[in-house]
Amino acid sequence: MRHGISLVAMGHASSLFLALTFTICVAFDLLFPQHAMYQIWLKLLPGFEWLSWKSFWLGLAESYGYGWYFALIWTPLYNVFAGRGQGHRRR
Predict the structure, then answer these.
(1) pLDDT value of position 82
(2) For FRET with 73, which of 6, 12, 58, 66 sits at 20 to 30 Å CA-CA?
(3) SS3 string of 6-37?
(4) pTM for this structure?
């Protein structure tokens, strides 16, 4: 019996994780401007500028997209290697 990780579940989970992380980081930057991290977002998110509503929504969408990018590559790789390991049982 073969069990793999669901691509859809992994896609939504990793995308929501990155979108929430982006939102928390923006809030952190607004609360503690002396420790701002937004320069990193400027490099990682094309078109992102500090800070307007348009830019925030763009960064949120791009963060969500990066989650799907991760899932589309990682999930099939994991499922292939997990499937290979099932044929080898320890005695």
Answers:
(1) 87
(2) 58
(3) CHHHHHHHHHHHHHHHHHHHHHHHHHCHHHCC
(4) 0.83
The token pair that represents 2 in the structure block:
């073969």
Q: How far is CA 34 from CA 21, 30, 38, 40, 89, in A?
A: 19, 9, 11, 15, 55
Place of tokens 């930057």: 29
Owner of token pair 């691509």: 7
Q: Are 73 and 5 in contact (CB under 8 A)?
A: no
Question: Of 1, 5, 6, nearest to 81 (Cα)?
Answer: 5
- Please answer whether residues 65 and 49 qualify as being in contact, where contact means their C-beta atoms are separated by less than 8 angstroms: no
Give the single-character DSSP code of 38.
Answer: H
